[in-house]
């Protein structure tokens, strides 16, 4: 054991090793296989650039990168355009019902984007309510919102809440005396916004914009449902992999490599930018919310209400349509009924619901245990191995869900380790995908706790492990549990890796929603969506109760 | 040549919701002086300061600068510089950019701007840090930047809101000396807010002592320390021992009778004082004399604290009355706890207040007044 200073075999060293093995097995090994399959000819065993070349040769393939970038850049830009003024108005102007609005924004943020896609199809699709209304009233031939504009609409409305949450948090840390200082130096309120406020929230804006960028570029469900031929990289990866499993794994792997390179570059770019601008701010006196009057007040209220209504519309639509009667599952008759719920609860196996809860919970247990241990090791037991752990644990941040799914199939379909089709592989994919977020938040929690607390316990006769179990872990728990609930909400909404890894035994709610929509069973899809939405909202309420705040950290 | 402005605050009113915070307050601030608003937290001093600069609206009365009402002039047009409690240095700008910020939206030539910035950097002595970011500065340096940024625009009035409260004790003394000398050098009319009476005494030309939104007394540091107008001021500024006494007439002169029948002649009593009244006597710790004579107030020494330059004694006078007494260390040997001593007061130094309103009964004669 070279990495221990005194060569002793402590429980922490063993733990470090076990976690390292888990990470090697579930992160490094699958990724290595992706890289290998993308560059090794399976028959000759030699290095080949055939697959990567194929991607860049045909426009049919490389256009997907361009498409992904177009969608992502436009969506990110529009999310900032909506999220920034929303955050500013909510912090500066007294908006009626602002507490409810904040909760609604968070709800729209935590629900999976493809539900938004599905709901917007019902509103603005070929036979959407609004589409029909417009065409009937004005005699137009509006085809509905699909393709590029549809994807951008759905993803923007799903992403601006994240920008809002971040910027609202930054504005809270912005001391109002900075504003007042500028005012006393002769600057008007408009000048103050772009001279003081905007420059100070730029780091936060960039950080949140990058998160949006990463989420949007990796999103699979939305372009799949509403894209109608507008193909992005995740869609291409999925279709190539699903249609050519066994046939051309190499090409799918090459696509994954291209995709990872793109996200990696973005990630590094954000790191550089974030290091370049960062200001430590702490507000003695935060900005005050003030009553506004006249046209300014009306415009602010109008803007906030309309934006938030559009953001929450998908949840309203799916909940509403889940209670509508359908003819053959597809066409709404206009009557209310519980038929859809009867279908999914009685006519069908309810396993998908229990699967989701069961696998989600087990994933959370793994996430919490690993998260707490890893953050403890990296903060309190710094050495080379734990630093490697820390770095490897950040990998999943840049691995899109579909790539992770494919890499798991590569790694665990054949001997020596056969896991595909099992509950365990689903759970591990959830846990690994969420790992970087959990570790980051647990690390933040541990860093807040002074080491002298553990030293006090040890001076009173406790062993190091006892100090960890009895003092540190209980102190971390409130924060960790809050983080666990947020992880739970993201895990149960996960689609892009589940859609690749699931079998009939491990089907989840999100997969069911997706497949029902593809089959045209809108009624069932709505009922499933409603169950997922209600679960998420209840979990969110529990989170609020636990933290005592109406805020989420993402 | 004196271009400094005067400020007239006339019957101003401030309400927060239904709560009246300041109800008809008036004061005059003279050109070029450093005027301090002193009072406990929540007394309305910061509220008043923010009314002067315009962050708080004026709900009644008026504030004038050189007899011109400024009630409705927006903050950005009031030509007032402010130094904030937490400095409010812009974290995204260098020291120089912070200082230049207020000049940028006025039409100065580049040369003029540079000249002004260099001048102020020199005055506040931060030339060496001008290219640093604020997070690379110490608290004292940030304070100097905040001061430079406020005065570089040549405001008519400088406002300082508890500017030293975030500094440690030693730096606080250093910075208050710096502020005082910079203020004198620039000669700008300044309103300074603090809850620290020692800081106020050290720095101010005049002090307004405030409590519960009302000005208790305005005067020079010496006036308010030596001749407080009421018990509140007497206790808030420095340490005061409050004793009960009775006014008696002996041999055609008015005397006060303290504990143990100890009597002392009092002069310059106002006409409000009547023989036979019970009054409150405020005695500063160094206005007591520990004496061998047996006709003083009898007390038992509880504790002593030797501080080098002097010694503090805590003396029990019986009946739950305790006083703090300061004696120069070189005068007498240390008195051990438990010993009985006799105390006399310096009659020309002490202050006497009526018991109902706790207002002074001393007539300040021309000879006592300090200019």
Automatic annotation (TrEMBL), chain A:
<feature type="transmembrane region" description="Helical">
    <location>
        <begin position="295"/>
        <end position="317"/>
    </location>
</feature>
<dbReference type="InterPro" id="IPR000515">
    <property type="entry name" value="MetI-like"/>
</dbReference>
<keyword id="KW-0812">Transmembrane</keyword>
<dbReference type="Pfam" id="PF00528">
    <property type="entry name" value="BPD_transp_1"/>
</dbReference>
<feature type="transmembrane region" description="Helical">
    <location>
        <begin position="359"/>
        <end position="379"/>
    </location>
</feature>
<feature type="transmembrane region" description="Helical">
    <location>
        <begin position="196"/>
        <end position="218"/>
    </location>
</feature>
<feature type="domain" description="ABC transmembrane type-1">
    <location>
        <begin position="65"/>
        <end position="270"/>
    </location>
</feature>
<keyword id="KW-0472">Membrane</keyword>
<feature type="transmembrane region" description="Helical">
    <location>
        <begin position="145"/>
        <end position="167"/>
    </location>
</feature>
<feature type="transmembrane region" description="Helical">
    <location>
        <begin position="12"/>
        <end position="35"/>
    </location>
</feature>
<keyword id="KW-0813">Transport</keyword>
<keyword id="KW-0997">Cell inner membrane</keyword>
<dbReference type="GO" id="GO:0055085">
    <property type="term" value="P:transmembrane transport"/>
</dbReference>
<dbReference type="InterPro" id="IPR035906">
    <property type="entry name" value="MetI-like_sf"/>
</dbReference>
<dbReference type="GO" id="GO:0005886">
    <property type="term" value="C:plasma membrane"/>
</dbReference>
<feature type="transmembrane region" description="Helical">
    <location>
        <begin position="479"/>
        <end position="502"/>
    </location>
</feature>
<protein>
    <submittedName>
        <fullName>Iron(III) transport system permease protein</fullName>
    </submittedName>
</protein>
<feature type="domain" description="ABC transmembrane type-1">
    <location>
        <begin position="353"/>
        <end position="543"/>
    </location>
</feature>
<feature type="transmembrane region" description="Helical">
    <location>
        <begin position="391"/>
        <end position="410"/>
    </location>
</feature>
<feature type="transmembrane region" description="Helical">
    <location>
        <begin position="251"/>
        <end position="274"/>
    </location>
</feature>
<comment type="similarity">
    <text>Belongs to the binding-protein-dependent transport system permease family.</text>
</comment>
<feature type="transmembrane region" description="Helical">
    <location>
        <begin position="60"/>
        <end position="88"/>
    </location>
</feature>
TrEMBL record, chain B:
<dbReference type="InterPro" id="IPR017871">
    <property type="entry name" value="ABC_transporter-like_CS"/>
</dbReference>
<dbReference type="GO" id="GO:0043190">
    <property type="term" value="C:ATP-binding cassette (ABC) transporter complex"/>
</dbReference>
<dbReference type="InterPro" id="IPR003593">
    <property type="entry name" value="AAA+_ATPase"/>
</dbReference>
<keyword id="KW-0813">Transport</keyword>
<feature type="domain" description="ABC transporter">
    <location>
        <begin position="7"/>
        <end position="237"/>
    </location>
</feature>
<dbReference type="Pfam" id="PF08402">
    <property type="entry name" value="TOBE_2"/>
</dbReference>
<dbReference type="InterPro" id="IPR008995">
    <property type="entry name" value="Mo/tungstate-bd_C_term_dom"/>
</dbReference>
<protein>
    <submittedName>
        <fullName>Iron(III) transport system ATP-binding protein</fullName>
    </submittedName>
</protein>
<dbReference type="InterPro" id="IPR003439">
    <property type="entry name" value="ABC_transporter-like_ATP-bd"/>
</dbReference>
<dbReference type="GO" id="GO:0005524">
    <property type="term" value="F:ATP binding"/>
</dbReference>
<dbReference type="InterPro" id="IPR013611">
    <property type="entry name" value="Transp-assoc_OB_typ2"/>
</dbReference>
<dbReference type="InterPro" id="IPR050093">
    <property type="entry name" value="ABC_SmlMolc_Importer"/>
</dbReference>
<dbReference type="Pfam" id="PF00005">
    <property type="entry name" value="ABC_tran"/>
</dbReference>
<dbReference type="InterPro" id="IPR027417">
    <property type="entry name" value="P-loop_NTPase"/>
</dbReference>
<keyword id="KW-0547">Nucleotide-binding</keyword>
<dbReference type="GO" id="GO:0016887">
    <property type="term" value="F:ATP hydrolysis activity"/>
</dbReference>
<dbReference type="InterPro" id="IPR012340">
    <property type="entry name" value="NA-bd_OB-fold"/>
</dbReference>
<dbReference type="GO" id="GO:0140359">
    <property type="term" value="F:ABC-type transporter activity"/>
</dbReference>
<keyword id="KW-0067">ATP-binding</keyword>
């Amino acid at each position: 054991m070279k990495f221990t200073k005194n060569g002793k075999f402590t429980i922490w060293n063993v733990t470090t090793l076990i976690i390292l093995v888990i990470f090697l097995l579930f992160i490094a090994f699958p990724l290595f296989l992706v890289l290998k399959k993308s560059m090794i000819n399976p028959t000759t065993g030699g290095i080949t650039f055939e697959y990567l070349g194929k991607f860049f040769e045909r426009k049919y393939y490389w256009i997907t990168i361009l498409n992904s970038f177009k969608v992502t850049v436009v969506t990110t830009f529009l999310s900032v355009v909506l999220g920034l003024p929303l955050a500013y108005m909510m912090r500066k102007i007294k908006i009626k019902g602002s507490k409810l609005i904040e909760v609604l924004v968070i709800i729209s943020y935590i629900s999976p984007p493809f539900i938004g896609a599905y709901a917007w199809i019902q509103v603005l699709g070929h036979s959407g309510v609004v589409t029909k209304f417009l065409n009937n009233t004005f005699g137009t031939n509006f085809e509905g919102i699909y393709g590029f504009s549809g994807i951008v609409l759905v993803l923007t409305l799903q992403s601006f809440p994240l920008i809002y949450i971040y910027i609202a948090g930054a504005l809270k840390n912005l001391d109002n005396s900075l504003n007042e200082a500028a005012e006393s130096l002769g600057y008007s309120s408009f000048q103050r916004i772009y001279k003081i406020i905007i420059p100070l929230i730029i780091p936060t804006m960039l950080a949140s914009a990058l998160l949006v960028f990463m989420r949007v570029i990796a999103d699979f469900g939305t372009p799949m449902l509403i894209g109608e031929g507008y193909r992005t990289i995740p869609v291409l990866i999925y279709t190539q992999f699903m249609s050519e499993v066994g046939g051309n794994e190499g090409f799918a792997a090459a696509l994954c490599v291209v995709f990872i390179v793109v996200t990696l570059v973005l990630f590094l770019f954000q790191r550089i930018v974030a290091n370049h601008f960062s200001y430590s701010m702490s507000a003695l006196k935060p900005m005050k919310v003030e009553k506004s009057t006249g046209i300014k007040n009306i415009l602010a209220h109008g803007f906030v209400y309309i934006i938030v209504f559009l953001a929450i519309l998908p949840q309203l639509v799916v909940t509403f349509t889940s209670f509508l009667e359908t003819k053959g599952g597809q066409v709404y008759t206009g009557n209310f009924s519980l038929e859809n719920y009867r279908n999914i609860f009685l006519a069908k196996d309810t396993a998908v619901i229990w699967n989701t809860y069961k696998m989600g919970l087990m994933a959370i247990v793994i996430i919490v245990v690993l998260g707490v241990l890893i953050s403890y090791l990296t903060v309190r037991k710094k050495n080379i191995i734990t630093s490697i752990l820390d770095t490897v644990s950040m990998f999943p941040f840049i691995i899109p869900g579909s790539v992770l799914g494919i890499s798991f199939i590569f790694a665990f379909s054949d001997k020596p380790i056969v896991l595909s089709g099992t509950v365990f592989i689903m759970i591990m994919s959830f846990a690994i995908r969420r790992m970087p977020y959990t570790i980051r938040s647990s690390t933040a929690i541990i860093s807040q706790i002074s080491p002298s607390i553990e030293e006090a316990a040890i001076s009173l006769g406790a062993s190091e492990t006892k100090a960890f179990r009895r003092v540190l872990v209980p102190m971390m728990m409130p924060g960790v549990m809050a983080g666990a609930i947020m992880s739970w909400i993201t895990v149960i909404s996960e689609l892009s890796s589940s859609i690749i890894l699931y079998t009939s035994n491990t089907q989840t709610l999100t997969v069911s929603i997706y497949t029902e929509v593809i089959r045209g069973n809108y009624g069932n899809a709505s009922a499933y969506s409603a169950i997922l939405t209600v679960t998420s909202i209840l979990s969110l309420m529990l989170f609020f109760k636990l933290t005592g705040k109406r805020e989420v950290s993402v | 040549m004196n271009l400094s402005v005067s400020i007239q605050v006339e019957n101003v009113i401030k309400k927060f919701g239904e709560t009246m915070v300041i109800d008809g307050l008036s004061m005059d601030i003279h050109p070029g002086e450093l005027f301090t608003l002193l009072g406990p937290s929540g007394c309305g001093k910061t509220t008043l300061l923010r009314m002067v600069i315009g962050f708080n609206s004026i709900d009644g009365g008026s504030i004038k600068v050189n007899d011109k009402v400024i009630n409705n002039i927006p903050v950005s047009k009031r030509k007032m510089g402010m130094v904030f409690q937490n400095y409010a240095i812009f974290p995204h700008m260098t020291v120089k950019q912070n200082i230049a910020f207020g000049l940028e939206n006025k039409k100065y030539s580049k040369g003029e701007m540079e000249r002004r910035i260099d001048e102020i950097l020199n005055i506040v002595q931060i030339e060496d840090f001008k290219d640093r970011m604020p997070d690379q500065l110490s608290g004292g340096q940030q304070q100097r930047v905040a001061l430079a940024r406020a005065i570089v625009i040549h405001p008519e009035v400088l406002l300082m809101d508890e500017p030293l409260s975030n500094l440690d004790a030693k730096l606080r003394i250093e910075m208050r000396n710096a502020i005082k000398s910079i203020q004198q050098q620039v000669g700008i009319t300044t309103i300074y807010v603090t809850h620290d009476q020692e800081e106020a005494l050290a720095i101010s030309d005049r002090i307004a002592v405030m409590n519960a939104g009302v000005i208790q007394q305005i005067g020079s540091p010496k006036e308010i320390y030596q001749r407080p107008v009421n018990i509140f001021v007497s206790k808030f500024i420095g340490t005061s021992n409050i004793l009960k006494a009775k006014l008696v007439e002996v041999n055609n002169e008015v005397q006060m009778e303290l504990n143990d029948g100890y009597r002392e002649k009092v002069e310059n009593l106002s006409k409000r004082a009547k023989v036979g009244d019970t009054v409150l006597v405020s005695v500063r710790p160094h206005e007591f004399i520990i004496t061998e004579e047996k006709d003083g107030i009898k007390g038992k020494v509880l504790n002593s604290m030797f501080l080098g330059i002097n010694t503090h004694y805590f003396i029990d006078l019986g009946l739950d009355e305790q006083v703090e007494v300061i004696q120069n260390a070189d005068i007498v040997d240390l008195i051990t706890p438990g010993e009985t001593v006799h105390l006399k007061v310096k009659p020309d130094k002490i202050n006497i207040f009526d018991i109902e309103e706790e207002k002074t009964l001393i007539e300040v004669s021309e000879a006592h007044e300090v200019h």
